[in-house]
Amino acid sequence: MSQHLTRPDAPHRRARQWGPSFGGGSLLALGFALLGPDASAAPSPSAPAEAASPQADTQADKPDTDNGAGPTCIITGSTTPPKDLELYDKASGGSVVARLTGVETPLKAYEFPKGSDERARLDTGTGKGHFRIQGYVHTKQLPLYTKKALTVLQGHLWIGAHQEVHFDGSSPKRIRVAKHMKRPLSQTFKTWTSCSNLSFDQGTPPGWSIDGDARGYRMKSDSITLYDDYGRDKSDVVTLNRAAGSEMVFWSTKRHGAYVQVAYQGEIMLEAWAKASTLKALPKGEIMDHYVPPKRVVTGSKVQVQGETKLVKTTREHYLRLEAKEDAPKIGKIEIDTEVLVLDVVAGWASVMPKDATVMPPKEGQFWVNAEDLGLSPPTKPAPPPTPAE
């Protein structure tokens, strides 16, 4: 028996069983934007309000774009950040205080700016077992993931759950995200969502199944326009642009005259009507490989340490500095229960790095901590030679 997945905005009591529809509850429109090569799109007419699932993002208010998301919009989780992602000491300008190596690490981002070309606050660490650096990072470089399907065009187009998206702006308690697709479409989809619907944790996208009597269709040309209905009063929903060398397969169990109701699920989810003349039906029983985007993997830096080192595990927090002096600015802390490699001790200051190498100082720089605080006592002075007896 084939399984069915319900559309994100279809109430459970009315879930249609016509074929490959989509998983998980109910979503209302969040606003929309579509960009891409020769992007063409029109908003679908407002659909009747439907019962909302508690799992859905149902906030549809128009974002106040005069301000950024503010301090209450917080995104957390563990991720493999881009290699050598730099943290600055100021929201604009300033100096680099640390860099992430591409090794998986817990992160906390907040104070998101209004514009996508600005910086947000970023903290490394969780309170235990890490170097906690507090700085600012370019928001576009942060790998964000959806916790659930996000509506782009109500009733027709969604960004899938557990898909990578990128920051594209914010307003109080809201973030606009962009989903950049390279295969099978060459296109970008944007939408607004609540901060709570985003995470640094990648997760696993939900699977889906194809109804046993569903028919496969592929695009005849490099672009196709989809509609909200098959009738005379139908409206354009979106024009899709296929990536060079790729195939996009739709599935359907329903046709009305010259129109086919099609569905697609991958990085995005689609349900709309297409002109049959723009599609080529696959022979019955024939399927094509379904493109599955690769899981994001970043190869972290390989840190080579020369000379002897000493491993210390902290029992309390210690301030970190970029200079070996007491009046140097504090850039963060070594958290409790952190394994620390001591690289050198100079004039009462220890040059250190985390054993897991998740965060490193700026190039040509060093992290410094008070050596005595780490329990690294200065070498004792040799005892004076005995005084000769008279």
pLDDT < 50 runs, ≥5 residues: 1-6, 11-62
Helix content: under 10%
- End-to-end separation: 106 Å
Number of helices: 0
Average pLDDT for all residues: 82
Overall number of strands: 29
Order of helices and strands: EEEEEEEEEEEEEEEEEEEEEEEEEEEEE
Briefly note the structural class of the backbone: mainly beta
Main β-sheet: number of strands, strand sense, barrel status? 10 strands, antiparallel
Q: In what range is the share of β-strand residues?
A: 35-45%
Total domain modules: 2
Shape: elongated
Helix and strand layout, with pairings?
Layout: E1 33-35, E2 40-41, E3 75-79, E4 85-88, E5 96-100, E6 105-110, E7 119-124, E8 131-138, E9 144-146, E10 150-153, E11 157-159, E12 164-171, E13 174-181, E14 187-194, E15 198-199, E16 215-219, E17 223-227, E18 236-241, E19 249-256, E20 259-265, E21 268-275, E22 279-281, E23 310-313, E24 318-321, E25 330-334, E26 339-346, E27 349-354, E28 359-360, E29 367-370
Antiparallel strand pairs: 1-14, 2-18, 3-6, 4-5, 5-28, 6-7, 7-8, 8-25, 9-12, 9-15, 10-11, 11-21, 12-13, 13-14, 16-19, 16-22, 17-18, 17-21, 19-20, 20-21, 23-26, 24-25, 26-27, 27-29
